[in-house]
Amino acid sequence: xxxxxxxxxxxxxxxxxxxxxxxxxxxxxxxxxxxxxxxxxxxxxxxxxxxxxxxxxxxxxxxxxxxxxxxxxxxxxxxxxxxxxxxxxxxxxxxxxxxxxxxxxxxxxxxxxxxxxxxxxxxxxxxxxxxxxxxxxxxxxxxxxxxxxxxxxxxxxxxxxxxx
Length: 164
Hints:
Layout (H helix, E strand, L loop, with lengths): L1 E4 L3 E4 L5 E3 L12 E6 L5 E6 L6 E5 L10 E4 H7 L7 E8 L8 E11 L5 E3 L11 E2 H11 L11 E4 L2
Parallel strand pairs: 7-12
Antiparallel strand pairs: 1-2, 3-4, 4-5, 5-6, 6-8, 8-9, 9-10, 9-11
């Protein structure tokens, strides 16, 4: 199918790139259908609205720069998405890229949690005070690289399952 995107104009996409967020995103609750696209620069992605060409969010795997990141959401929320084990979840953070040379930051307080199998997701809101809305990606990447002797493995075992 063809879709108009903010970053690339009109492109051909595969139906498997579609992500449904039944509750939308905070502030965009009326937009529920998106495409997950690779960005030109890795390790970033685009979450492109299928309903509004000018609505797209830059995303990143938070485990790349915060290997200690924990997403603690309730069993009910996970079951709503059909996620029964951490390996079934894809966790992505929304990135803010400022216009004028400010810091590129990631929202670790409101990650996207997506079921890898059925491509349904939601934006979680975490209450852990370690995770804020403006984490400096480059500074945290440098800090995690300096303190981690092993390579960062990426987006695995990323969801802490908590009973409600």
